[in-house]
Amino acid sequence: MRVLVVLGDVDAAGVLYFATVYRWHESTFTNWLAEHGIPLEQILSSGRGLPVRTSWADYPSAARLGDDVRVTRSIAELTETDFVFETTWRDAASGRVVATVSTKHVACERDAGSGLFWRTPIWESLRSALLALTNEG
């Protein structure tokens, strides 16, 4: 995925606004799920969820209005119930990293009786997709 940094992505100085990469990250994650046949709306309608438990970002260099950036996706951590989905954004011309965003997700399911969500092992179709992405890197 490539993104052109547009006016709505930057602050008054023309530098990438810190929250923009979180929007890009979420879009990348949602599209990745759909590419693997497990669209987010299907997950949610089935009584499952993947809430974000923790998130963080690193901005080693600035991106500016008009820059062309590209993303790489990876899984930084995978346990029985949790995983860290990571996106790294690089300037397309120079290859320099402009941001890395990580979100730690927890697999959960709604209890039919109480309606509450409880942590659950990552279901097989999602685990297979996560392992495939892990093995890409």
Description:
The chain has 137 residues and is of the alpha+beta class. It has three helices and eight strands. It has helices at 20-35, 40-45, 124-136; strands at 2-4, 48-49, 52-58, 68-78, 82-91, 97-106, 108-110, 117-119. The two termini are 16 Å apart. 18% of the residues are buried. The model has no long low-confidence stretch (mean pLDDT 94).
Most strands sheet: 5 strands, antiparallel
Shape: elongated
Could you state the oligomeric state of the chains shown?
single chain
Weakly predicted, low-confidence segments: none
Strand order of the largest sheet: 1-4-5-6-3
Helix vs. strand class: alpha+beta
The H-and-E topology, N to C, reads as EHHEEEEEEEH
Proportion of residues in β-strands: 35-45%
Radius of gyration using CA atoms only: 16 Å
Per DSSP E runs of 2 or more residues, the count of β-strands stands at 8
What percent of the residues sit in helical stretches (DSSP H or I)?
25-40%
Instruction: Give the rounded overall mean pLDDT.
Output: 94
Distance between the termini: 16 Å
